[in-house]
Each structure stands twice: as C-alpha cells, then as structure tokens.
Amino acid sequence: MFEKFASDAREAVIRAQDAARTTGSDHVGAEHLLVGAVTTPESVAARSLTRLGLRPGDVVVLVRHLPTEALDDEALASVGVDLEAVRAQAEATFGPGALDGSRTPPRRGHLPLDGAAKKTLEVALREALRFKQRRIDSGHLLFACARLDDTRAHRVLAQLGVTPQGLRQAVIATWADGPDGAS
Predict the structure, then answer these.
(1) Which residues pair with 113 in a beta bridge?
(2) Which residue has the higher pLDDT, 140 or 80?
(3) What CATH number is given for 2-67+110-177 in this structure?
(4) Rounded to the nearest 10 degrees, how much is the dihedral formed by the CA atoms of 55, 56, 58, 59?
C-alpha cells in the first residue's frame, strides 16, 4: 500500500513513528498519524491546517496531553474485575510494575500500527479513490482522521474546532493552490 503514498504521506508515517516514541507509546495510533501529517513541512496537511488558522504545534500539544490509555479500575470493576487483585497477582508473578509497562524499555525501530491507525490508512486510500487520485497524500490522511469519529485523532481535531466539512474545503483549496497537490 505504501507504494501509493506521495512523499508527504510517507514522511507523515515516519514522523508518526517519532511522535509515538515521544509520547512514550509502544504503537502508532491515529493521533500519531495526525501529528506526522501536520508536522511534515509544506505537506498538504500542514498547509490545509494553516488555511484553517491553526498551527501544527496546536495538534502536537493536544496529542501530548491526551489521557493515557491506562487500565481503568472503575470500568473494570463495572464488569466484575478487581484491578488491584489482578495487579497484585501480576506483580507477584512478574515483578513490580508488570501492568504499568514501566519494566519495558522504550522500543527502538519500527513501532506497530494499532487498529485505529490501520483504519486511518485504509480510509485515506478510500478517500484518494473517491477523488479519483492515484496517490495518497497527507490531505487524505487528514480526511481519514476527521471521518473516523471514534479515534483519538478525531477527538484532537474536534477540540481544535475542526469540522470534517471545513477540513475538506481546506484540503481541496490546498490541492488547487499548489504543485504538491494530489495527482
């Protein structure tokens, strides 16, 4: 699939890996793809974000402050799981911090994509096909982040006041403006 990516989308995926590492994640999520897309200099995504009156740093700050996907003892208790008992057993068996990930050093090399990131890439491909474009660029990644309303990337865009319709208009206008638009 990556052979269909324009250079800015490829760079966005590389930057997403870095963004995931920076936030201490062991995987790349949709929110990391969003950061990668908008922090790639002169990308369709970055120029579209600017057109909306936002800066890449606005996205980066919100992603860094997203709540961690830690174990939720209240949610687990609602289904009859005692997190403290599970934690005590895990620590007795595997050592202190076994459920916290604190024993695992940060991963080097390639981080795997989580389900939301995979779905984001799939929807980006569908968006390129929908526009009858041969390559996926960072604008398509933005479309996917805005469309998938159950992702952390969508939550960040919503916090910034970005609507799918407004984003779509900004990306289309950006394609019309520049030589790096979708082809």
Answers:
(1) 28
(2) 140
(3) 1.10.1780.10
(4) 140
